[in-house]
Amino acid sequence: MFALGKIPSVNSFPTRDEIADEQTCLLEVCVCPQCFLVQLSELVPPERLFTEYRYLSAASNTWVRYLGDLAAMLTERFQITAETRILETGSNDGTLLAAFLPRTRHVLGVDPARNLVADAAARGVPTVAEFLNEATSEHIVRDHGQFDLILGLNVYAHTPDLLGILRGTHNLLTPHGTFVMEAVHVLKTILRGAYDTVYHEHVFCYSLTTLREQYARAGLAITDVEETPMHGGSLRVYAQRADSHPAIAVSVAQMLEAECIAGVTDLAMYQRVGESVRQHRHALREGVEALKRHHGRVWALGASARGVVILNAGKLDTALLDAVVDDTPLKQGRVVPGVHVPVVGWEALRDAPEQPAAFLLTSWNFEREVFDKLRRLGGVREAEILIPFPDMRTVHLEPVHGQALPSAPGRTPER
User: What single-letter DSSP state applies at residue 44?
Assistant: First the structure.
């Protein structure tokens, strides 16, 4: 479909002394012409990507609110009580599971990032620091039993062994338990040219059509599906063990039909994405170059995984960007993988002798939160900001009303 070149792991964030040892891998997206599963052509061993992880769920207020709202919804939907047992795959720092603690103490995280176990424990969330697969699921069942609710947010696209993690999930479910998974929807992201959802951690990008077949192979039946706007457009998929013969909501057939009509089984649709990506990458670099000419200094906002991809795809290095502001302490004082732009906290922006008047919003999916922090923590009153996705546009941060108002739209390529 398309390739973004050789890029390091988006969560590696080396120090300047470590740049010489930086490892890269081709980031190329392909599609299976038989099952239409979108996937990477080259894989990085998961142990290199996840055992020391610098992403924290708690770093984004927007994400914390989202997780809190999700926990509240699931608590009501499944009538969670003090006896309900909940497991989360890819539990990170325990933010989501901690939201269930007022109702039940029976929570368990599973995450290979050993550096985050203490953060989760501080929130009252115990963690098994392993990758979930069939073998580890058997150990967890032996030590902790099965679970009524299993959660996996933006995790099940991260493992090359999809069938293994799904079978492990099946093993961990009680006979009538429910598995809730969220992942970006290929129809709303990659098939619209949103290449910023592509990085080595994201081995796959799903449609419900492709997921149904993979779930069935693992003995799971999809029972319900919802769409969420998170990360540019995601699926929330509910499933149970197929041997429990669960009822299937009408939403499943409706989504499958909608995907078919939209073309997720049309190979030509996937083949057209590459040109859209090429045009967007060219327009992105031109946009940042224009900011640099007009304002002299440009900073990026957000060293998220998608931000790292955006900067590398546009080859936006220190010749164009002075710094990237990010909330995550584990990333500050280091450099962005690949392009080596320094990562700083908001205080560096606030205390800069000469504040920049131009920004690239790499964490565009948290636009409102970032704009608020730009004023409140960064002390910026007025600026021109380039927003690359979902449709490239420029906004002006105005000094009077404290709101970001759209500028006159520029010409952007079709995507």
Answer: -
